[in-house]
Amino acid sequence: MSATSATAATGYDLVIADAWVLDGSGGPGYRADVAVDGQRIAAIAAPGSLHGRVREDARGLALAPGFIDVHTHDDRAVLDDPGVFNKLSQGVTTVITGNCGISLAPWRADREPPAPLSLIGRQADFRFERFGDYLDAVDAARPAVNVAAMVGHSTLRIAEVADLDRGADPAEIERMRARLREAMQAGAIGFSSGLFYKPSQAAPNSEVIELVRESGAHGGVYTSHVRNEYDGVLEAIDEAIDAGEAAHTPVVLSHHKCAGPANWGRTVETLARIDERRRRHWVGLDAYPYTAGSTVLDPDYVDDAIRILVSWSQPHPEHAGRDLGDIAAEWQVGQKEAARRLHPAGAVYFQMREDDVRRVLSHDRTMIGSDGLPHDAHPHPRLWGAFPRVLGHYCRDQGLFHLPEAIRRMTALSADTFGLKRRGRIAPGLAADLVLFDPDTIADRATFAEPKQPAAGIRAVWVGGACALRDAHATGERRGRALRREEERHAR
User: Fold this and answer.
1) Res 491: pLDDT
2) What confidence category does residue 489 fall into, taking pLDDT thresholds of 50, 70 and 90?
3) Is 136 exposed, middle or buried (0-12, 13-18, 19+ CB in 10 A)?
4) How far is CA 319 from CA 131, 323, 328, in A?
5) Residue 2: per-residue pLDDT
6) Which residues contact 253 (CB under 8 A, 6 or more apart)?
7) Is the dihedral of CA 210, 212, 218, 219 positive or negative?
8) Coil vs helix vs strand at 375
9) CA distance 387 to 244
């Protein structure tokens, strides 16, 4: 630990004094003063040794790198609601958008977007023909958090493939590659697919591989909402890793789960398969700390076997927050018919079992991602509570892993996976994205009944050296920006 003597004499912009520093490495915490100048961490030294124009007393509190939410659908939210309070209030300082094959760019919509693109916007929202224009719009919006963005396969297909019920022909693949190339050159950090969803279900893996190659050629990653998280989950995992392996590109398996009662317990198999494939190729995964997922409400997903909660409905907004079974009983129809009447709509699906969730969270390559849907009227509570739930419920209360390891999964592991070399650690010269919290009281307060509740136990959040949140209240400071791949890959 060291400080530059000249600055120490005059005082840093900010000193967070006597904090328990969890630096993101997963190693033991230590007590220290952490100094910030401008937008960078300037020094780390023994408690009481640094002086700043602003002093934050951090005794008894933990200081961590700002959390990186690796799985979001905040593409439009950071433009329309740049305060992004649901993320800021849980300690998130960087969001990764464009997951599950769904991205707001590059496509200037000539029609209403089909599901699942409808989860993030209407026709007027898909207005960016070039990905660089989207990143510029993020900068202009000055969001409270940083934004690293991926390009979605379904977005590319809708823009360039004439018939979504078939694989793309060579000319269409080349046009998709051209769009992806522009995006990667503009600063996108990778390519995502959602082969589970209808716009991409007809795409063979050969089509995906061509696009993964384009992403990999520019140093990007490949993330996949695999084709099947139910009975065919093992084959779907292999398909995703096959694509990355063929393209020599790292693979991230999105929100890994084994869905539906018939598949509960199968994470023993899936994680073993992932570990086997990791011996030959780089594979990571992300997860959210809940037994329920959330996406569009589709009658094809309704099986009467699990509870389904309606999160929004265009024709029947009054039913947001209600169980599909109750609505069906009220209408005296089956649940599939009720889903058809509510369509277009979204839903929360209680499709997982607790032991599977714990097993996935415990895996050493698992990063934390909320997968929240910010435009839902009654969202899944993960939108507001994913990160404090890991730290409070799973780490402190359940002892699933120790606190430094929990922080690693939210910070350094995520930054390293996505090439964000200026984030994810507390070290001199890196970005001053920081979160100060009480490890004894941090907890999620968002519930399935009342999902829009900020976390408890977070004292302050800094983004780019500016205090953006204090005691669950936004300060109005917004220093977030678009994180372009080449800029982030080279830490100063």
Assistant:
1) 55
2) confident
3) middle
4) 36, 8, 11
5) 38
6) 223, 224, 226, 237, 240, 274, 283, 284, 285, 286
7) negative
8) coil
9) 28
Looking at the DSSP assignment, which residues form a beta bridge with residue 310? 347
Strand spans (E) along 379-465 = 434-437, 458-463
* pLDDT tens digits along 421-478: 999 999 999 999 999 999 999 999 999 999 999 999 999 999 999 999 999 999 999 9
Q: What is each CA distance from 104 to 49, 70, 121, 399, 476, in whole angstroms? A: 47, 17, 8, 39, 26
Give me the mean pLDDT over the 197-222 stretch: 98
What secondary structure letter does DSSP report for 312? E
Give the whole-angstrom CA distance, residue 142 versus residue 453: 24
Model confidence pTM above 0.85: yes
Q: Please count the other Cβ atoms lying within 10 Å of the Cβ belonging to residue 105.
A: 29
Contacts (Cβ under 8 Å, ≥6 apart) of 364: none
Give the CA radius of gyration of the chain.
22
308-334 pLDDT, tens digit each: 999 999 999 999 999 999 999 999 999
Distances in Å between the Cα of 138 and the Cα atoms of 71, 96, 101, 122, 432 are 18, 13, 20, 18, 20
The SS3 call for residue 262 is helix
AA letter at 486: E
Token code pair at residue 89: 């209030």
Asked if 89 and 472 count as a contact pair (C-beta separation under 8 A), the reply is yes
* For residue 5, pLDDT beyond 90: no
